[in-house]
Amino acid sequence: MDAQKVTLRKMTPSEYDVATGRREAESVRELSKFMPQELARERVHQGTAQFLPDGLDTAGHHLVVAENGSGEVVGNAWIGPDPRHGSGTINSAWLYDINVFAQFQRRGYGSAILAAAEELVAREGKTSLNLNVVGDNEAAIAMYQCNGYEVSSMYLSKSVQR
Predict the structure, then answer these.
(1) Is the Cβ–Cβ distance between 118 and 152 less than 8 Å?
(2) C-alpha to C-alpha distance for 14 and 44, rounded to whole angstroms
(3) Distance CA 40, CA 25 (A)
(4) Nearest-CA neighbor of 64 among 27, 19, 34?
(5) Is the pTM of this model over 0.85?
(6) How far apart are alpha carbons 40 and 36 in whole angstroms?
């Protein structure tokens, strides 16, 4: 398969609303494995409010859509400051979310969006792009590894309820 190329542009307000709704629903679904759904929903909404207090116009954050060479929007991403600044990460950026729309998946667009995000943060003088990925998301993990990302930390969990 030929390598895809994408161009990133700022989301429109309606694109932001759709992306936020999708991201929050996915986050609630993941958190609901560990807590009641209402508590998960509350935590997710609090997280959005904390990290994106001004929504689409939050300073230092890039909420972007990715367009292919034909001008089709193939996915989106949220890139911003590394939330671990207290641990000496001032020169790193964070990939909070990346999404390839269903009809464009398995065609190299995830890697293309990732490459465009890396270029964006490098232009800003950042020296690394970091992220978290859910441990059972094997497709995402494989894509990141194919693009040179390495595990830098691992969080393990086991339910011990009686």
Answers:
(1) no
(2) 20
(3) 10
(4) 19
(5) yes
(6) 6
pLDDT of residue 153: 79
E strand segments, the chain: 7-10, 62-67, 73-81, 92-100, 128-131
CA-based end-to-end distance of the chain: 50
pLDDT exceeds 90 at position 109: yes
Q: Cβ(93)–Cβ(80) under 8 Å?
A: yes
pLDDT tier for residue 31 given thresholds of 50, 70 and 90 = very high
Q: Quick check: 66 and 8 in contact, CB under 8 A?
A: yes
Other beta carbons within 10 Å of 144: 20
Q: Quick check: 112 and 125 in contact, CB under 8 A?
A: no
Residue 115 is classified by DSSP as H
What is the strand order of the sheet 62-67 is part of? 7-10, 62-67, 73-81, 92-100, 128-131
Query: What pairs with residue 66 in β-bridges?
Result: 8, 75
Give CA torsion, residues 64, 70, 72, 75, to 10 deg: -50
Which of 58, 115, 121, 63 minimizes the C-alpha distance to 92? 121
Q: What CA–CA distances, in Å, run from 144 to 54, 66, 120, 149?
A: 29, 18, 17, 5
The pLDDT value recorded for residue 86 is 55
